[in-house]
Design brief:
The complex is a heterodimer of chains A (559) and B (418). Chain A has 559 residues and is mainly alpha-helical. Chain A has helices at residues 2-17, 26-36, 41-44, 51-63, 69-77, 83-91, 95-110, 120-132, 137-146, 159-162, 168-180, 200-210, 287-292, 297-312, 332-344, 349-358, 360-363, 389-400, 402-419, 432-446, 448-458, 471-479, 481-486, 494-499, 504-515, 522-534, 538-551, 553-556, and strands at residues 213-217, 224-228, 234-237, 244-247, 267-269, 278-279, 385-386, 557-558. Chain A has 28 helices and eight strands. Chain B has an eight-stranded mixed beta sheet, with helices on both faces. A two-stranded antiparallel sheet of chain B has the order 2-3. Chain B has a two-stranded antiparallel ribbon with strand order 9-10. Classes of the chains: A mainly alpha (559), B alpha/beta (418).
Chain lengths: 559, 418
């Protein structure tokens, strides 16, 4: 079929070189690249996802929850050919999108470390606000790496460094992994034995930014912050060769930051037990600029790879923190291209997520067209992604009706505070957008303790990995009293609606729509009817049915 | 090694061992919830008992005493049941069992970090998402349809570790909070066993349909987790039974003693690897008082457990490891503490596959450096596996990937192997 490829290739070339053609958008380029990455791609690619498949996926990926039955029905009935694009653009503006990205950045940056010096609430509020305002990743990196914890305005962003207590081995490893895609810990004692690209000087170049920094504990306010001294060098010795070297601060092989000539009085504030040291020349101050510098390609490649993984369920480079020559990206040209495009768009996360969501790669079905092993990693079909602890919690609460009930209560509470007796107008009317933000924040607060029970059961401590299905989790889903409570018929919740539905076909439809975000087919409807009839005590049987669906793979995964 | 795709995806708990012993692979839904328990631990199944002294036990107050030296601390060394081997006087009961153990006194991990040290000791590699020794053992030693999760950790605190790396999730560590029954072991009220079986069956049907023409590994893993959950529910009695007062008298009544009694029971019931953690060795201050108290708890209890395993003939098939993430600095700080010290410390091993009654390696007179036969987590990891009959030079049984079980750059400690 070589002639066919040549033909397609020249057609594409003709398209690209046509001066009147509109500039190709990133999502089109991505599809083109992926298609060209394997000679038999077209023959093996899975069908485009159905509307309901797409809908559930995009809600989970952009808002962290499944769609409501109403949202599903509305989308199914909508005839507009452009409805997927419209929905993507709608969802990234929702408060829930900011919340979902908050969780993503939180886990990426802090890996669920327990709180030490900055409260979780402060930190999460910082992340949420940044995501809501679509603060660029470059700016967030500046915020996080420049905050010393002493200024109230930036204290929350300082958690990344403060809760690692500015310990060089902890912050160096975290910065390497989170901002550069490189786990350099092995290069602490010697050049990495197996990875040529991880020499010891890379590790100590980063350490050197921190070699004068220390955790200052203010005896009066009891508040910790980052102090810095005016002297100190970074020396390292290879345990293999005993060669000794020193280094100035430096990111990978980029230029070094040499110290200026020492000043007679090197301090703005001299460090002592009552005062946080502030030197005239700070090594640490150079860190955010060095990391985000345009010449540091690791910065853009890392975030492009991580956001691709976030949407597609698989990174070009896996593990995400193992960028090096012997572990090349699956699609090297495409990764560079996305990374450069993101850089040109000033690290606008929302822009990239919208582009990724629009690709066919993203919108393909997870049902394989072929069993050919060789092509499975080439994005011929969508990857199945386990729901994160937060996605699972919110989706379960939504399916069972808890979210709806709680939202009603927050609206009532809002009305009570704003309208008082319901007759007088509120003094400061809220615009629609602020009201939505307010209600989402209240809802999030109201259900926080429930979500925490899920994160305790489902979140792992060692960072993102494959899929962690333990017996403890299965027991939680199967038996936990928490979920049993949500299955008690109450108000207009799911079990209540199902119990009130005498027609078993309608019951099956309501159940599938609420939990699996789609309508059942005839076989599935018949199966539900049979199950309902097989046992006495209808309410209990219906509760069991909901349990079954909540425990099913179709619910547990984003597919 | 190819998976048998003909059988039910939920029963895809195929292990290398099944292929080796040629066990049948065909099974239907009947395998989901066995009504009768087959004999518990299969005869000759190799097992592991890990006693983890969390925080870093001092080698100078345990396996490598240096009495009368500048940094040796206040405690004496005492003779043991093996002529010529002396250990700290804080371990009088263990000393009597020394013929069942061997000591490694020359570990250098080149890290003083709790997490890094622990991961190196568990994974045999100082970097990368590799599985813990307990998960490796579970994968290659578990029977086809194990009665209990293959790797059980009894501990009184801490979050869950990701112990599987790239191995299937069912070999991950199952964590117990002391002797308390796992959470959510009881069916919701009003749910009869019959209903539970119907629910389980229905879920399996749905998942089978969903798995058709989709990538199976995650879906299989989810199925296995429910399968394991069912088995634990069936074995509820194991966790709820009162511990025998005679055992409590011999082991002690503190948490560690109770956890060790449960550990013994779980091994008897066929768990492949049981890890019991004894918390609280991170003695940056008051090192000596702390060790007096901590090892006071450890010593009698551990010696009793080891004795029980021997009396019951279990040591022939059970590897015993007593280990930490690192040792403690010879230097005594101004708070009479000893700090983190990964560069010259000790562990003890015993049981199946181990040449007991010996000492491997040495530290110098002050204990500040390894002076002979330096080893690290990689050498030890391969030694544990060799001892239980897993060849660490083989590759992992992971479709489509070639990953050596042990780091190919290092070898097991041959002198330790029987």
């Amino acid at each position: 079929m070589t002639w066919l490829r040549i033909l397609i290739g020249s057609l594409l070339l003709a398209l690209l070189s046509d001066a009147t053609a509109p500039a190709t958008e990133l999502h089109e380029t991505i599809d083109q690249q992926i298609r060209q990455s394997h000679p038999q791609f077209l023959a093996h690619q899975a069908a485009l996802s159905t509307d309901t498949e797409f809908l559930r996926r995009i809600y989970l990926d952009l808002t962290g929850r499944i769609p409501t039955p109403r949202e599903t029905l509305r989308f199914m009935q909508q005839g507009d050919t452009n409805k997927r694009v419209q929905l993507i653009d709608h969802l990234v503006k929702q408060p829930e999108h900011a919340r979902h990205l908050q969780h993503f950045f939180d886990v990426m940056l802090m890996e669920r470390l327990p709180k030490k010096h900055v409260t979780l609430e402060q930190w999460q509020t910082y992340l949420y606000d940044s995501c809501r305002d679509n603060v660029s990743w470059e700016q967030m990196t500046w915020d996080i790496l420049s905050a010393d914890g002493a200024q109230p305005a930036t204290r929350s962003a300082a958690r990344f460094l403060l809760d690692r207590e500015v310990k060089p081995e902890l912050v160096t490893r975290a910065i390497g992994r989170v901002f550069l895609g490189r786990d350099l810990q092995c290069a602490q004692c010697h050049d990495h034995p197996a990875i040529d690209d991880y020499p010891q000087r890379h590790y100590y170049g980063l350490v050197s930014f921190f070699s004068r920094a220390y955790l200052f504990n203010d005896p009066k306010s009891k508040q910790t912050s980052i102090g810095e001294k005016a002297e100190g060098t970074t020396k390292f010795t290879s345990v293999f060769t005993n060669e000794e070297a020193t280094t100035f601060p430096r990111v990978l092989d980029l230029p070094v930051f040499t110290d200026p000539m020492p000043d007679k009085e090197p301090y703005v504030t001299k460090p002592d037990k009552n005062a946080r040291g502030v030197p005239k020349y700070s090594r640490l101050e150079h860190l955010p600029g060095a990391i985000t510098h345009a010449d540091n390609r690791a910065f853009r490649l890392n975030i492009a790879n991580r956001l691709w993984h976030f949407m597609m369920g698989r990174g070009f480079v896996e593990p995400l923190d193992m960028f090096h020559a012997d572990n090349p990206p699956s699609h090297p040209v495409l990764l560079q291209l996305i990374a450069d495009d993101l850089h040109e768009h000033q690290y606008d996360v929302r822009y990239l997520l919208r582009q990724l969501a629009r690709t066919k790669v993203y919108q393909r079905s997870s049902i394989l067209k072929t069993d050919d092993e060789s092509i499975k990693l080439r994005y011929t079909a969508a990857h199945i992604k386990p729901l994160t602890a937060e996605q699972l919690a919110w989706s379960t609460m939504l399916a069972t009706g808890l979210v709806d009930t709680t939202r009603q209560a927050t609206i009532q509470a809002f009305l009570a505070t704003k309208l008082g007796d319901g007759k007088t107008m509120p003094t400061a009317p809220m615009d629609w957008e602020s009201l939505q933000l307010h209600l989402e924040t209240e809802l999030n607060k109201a259900l926080q303790s429930q979500v925490t029970q899920f994160t305790t059961a489902f979140a792992r401590t060692d960072g993102p990995g494959e899929f962690n299905a333990t017996a403890n989790q299965a027991l939680f889903l199967a038996n936990s009293p928490l979920i049993s409570t949500w299955l008690r018929p109450s108000g207009n919740n799911l079990v209540s609606r199902l119990v009130a539905q005498p027609d078993s076909a309608k019951l099956a439809a309501e159940l599938y729509l609420s939990v699996l975000s789609r309508l059942p087919d005839a076989t599935e409807t018949a199966r539900i009817a049979k199950f309902v009839d097989a046992f006495p005590e209808r309410t209990t049987t219906i509760q069991e049915l909901v349990r079954v669906l909540l425990c099913s793979a179709e619910f547990r995964f984003n597919h | 090694m190819k998976r048998n795709l003909g059988c039910n995806p939920l029963d895809h708990v195929l292990s290398r061992r099944n292929f080796i012993v040629g066990a049948g692979t065909a099974a239907g839904f009947g395998g989901l919830l066995p009504r009768t328990w087959a004999k518990d631990a299969e005869r000759n199944q190799k097992q592991i008992l890990q006693v983890y002294l969390q925080g870093g036990v001092s080698q100078l107050e345990s396996w490598d005493p240096k009495p009368g030296t500048e940094l040796g601390g206040p405690f004496r060394a005492i003779p043991t049941s093996v002529p010529g081997i002396h250990i700290s006087e804080l371990l009088p009961h263990t000393a009597k069992m020394m013929h069942l153990l061997s000591i490694v006194r020359s570990i250098n991990l080149k890290t003083d970090d709790h997490t890094q040290g622990r991961l190196f000791m568990e994974k045999g590699r100082n970097v990368g998402a590799y599985p813990y020794v307990g998960s490796v053992a579970a994968k290659y030693l578990d029977s086809r349809d194990p009665a209990l999760p293959g790797y059980i950790h009894i501990s009184t605190r801490g979050l869950n570790d990701d112990t599987t790396g790239f191995l299937e999730p069912q070999y991950g560590q199952f964590k117990l909070e002391g002797v308390k029954a796992p959470k959510n072991l009881d069916l919701p009220k009003d749910i009869s066993r019959k209903r539970y079986l119907a629910r389980t069956d229905f879920r399996a049907q749905l998942d089978q349909q969903f798995a058709s023409r989709r990538r199976k590994s995650f879906i299989d893993a989810l199925g296995s987790s429910f399968n394991q959950a069912s088995k634990l529910m069936e074995r509820k009695g194991l966790f709820e039974a009162q511990q025998d007062p005679k055992d409590l008298e011999r082991y002690g009544t503190h948490d560690f003693a109770r956890n060790c009694i449960l550990g013994r029971t779980l091994l008897e019931r066929g768990a492949t690897c049981v890890k019991v953690t004894h918390h609280g060795y991170d003695s940056h201050a008051e090192n000596f008082n702390f060790h007096l108290e901590q090892l006071g708890e450890f010593d009698k209890t551990f010696a009793t457990l080891l004795g029980d395993l021997e009396d019951r003939g279990m040591l022939e098939n059970t590897l015993v490891m007593i280990y930490s993430e690192f040792g403690r600095t010879p230097k005594i700080n101004h708070r009479y503490g000893r700090d983190h010290w990964g560069s010259a410390w000790s562990i003890a091993l015993g049981g199946c596959g181990i040449q007991t009654g010996g000492v491997v390696g040495k530290t110098n007179d002050k204990g500040t450096e390894v002076s002979d036969r330096e080893v690290h987590g990689g050498h030890l990891f391969q030694t544990y596996l060799k001892a239980i009959g897993i060849d660490p030079s083989q590759n992992h049984d992971i479709p489509g990937r070639v990953i050596p079980i042990g780091d190919p750059a290092v070898e097991p400690v041959q002198e330790l192997l029987a």
